[in-house]
Specification:
The chain is mostly beta strands. The chain is about 10% helix and about 50% strand. It has one domain. An eight-stranded antiparallel barrel has the order 1-2-3-4-5-6-7-8. The chain is globular.
């Protein structure tokens, strides 16, 4: 089975990544699912060890722009910080929006708990690990890890 909850972002997410001002960095790499809920819909949608192309727009310093994480497969999902802090680090809430199999997906607020390596002006790689609840499917909690590399200005 395939992820299926991750493509409208590539286009919409990249437009957002490049259109917002501020000190941000764009990283790209691979995320791998390490665990997921054992509900029928979650089992059908997400496989353990399934991988996704992933992009992460990180704040550098104390920026106020919400951080975003995008995963792409048979669609795209964008996770955007929407709690009191603009970072996706730690426990908090985020919104999920996107498209899967040409169907819109929208979860205005889900719980997340992510460990993300620090990003500074000289950071060239980032690691992310954690869990997102209701990842495109109500009751489907997905744990993943990701390794990402800084994209050159303008991305690729």
């Amino acid at each position: 089975m395939s992820m299926g909850r991750f493509l409208i972002f590539t286009l919409a997410g990249l437009a957002i990544f490049s259109s917002e001002a501020g000190a941000t960095k764009l990283f790209k790499g691979i995320a791998v699912i390490t665990a997921r809920s054992n509900t029928p819909a979650c089992v059908q949608e997400y496989d353990i060890f399934e991988s996704y192309v992933t992009e992460y727009r990180a704040n550098v310093g104390s920026e106020t722009t919400p951080e975003r994480l995008v995963a792409v497969d048979n669609g795209a999902l964008m996770l955007t910080s929407n709690d009191a802090t603009p970072t996706l680090r730690g426990a908090g809430t985020a919104s999920i929006s996107g498209n899967a199999y040409a169907q819109p997906i929208s979860f205005p607020s889900v719980n997340v708990n992510l460990t993300i390596s620090p990003v500074t002006a000289t950071t060239t790689s980032v690691t992310i690990a954690g869990t997102v609840n209701d990842l495109g499917i109500a009751g489907c909690n997905v744990t993943f890890r990701a390794s990402l590399t800084l994209l050159p200005p303008g991305g690729y």
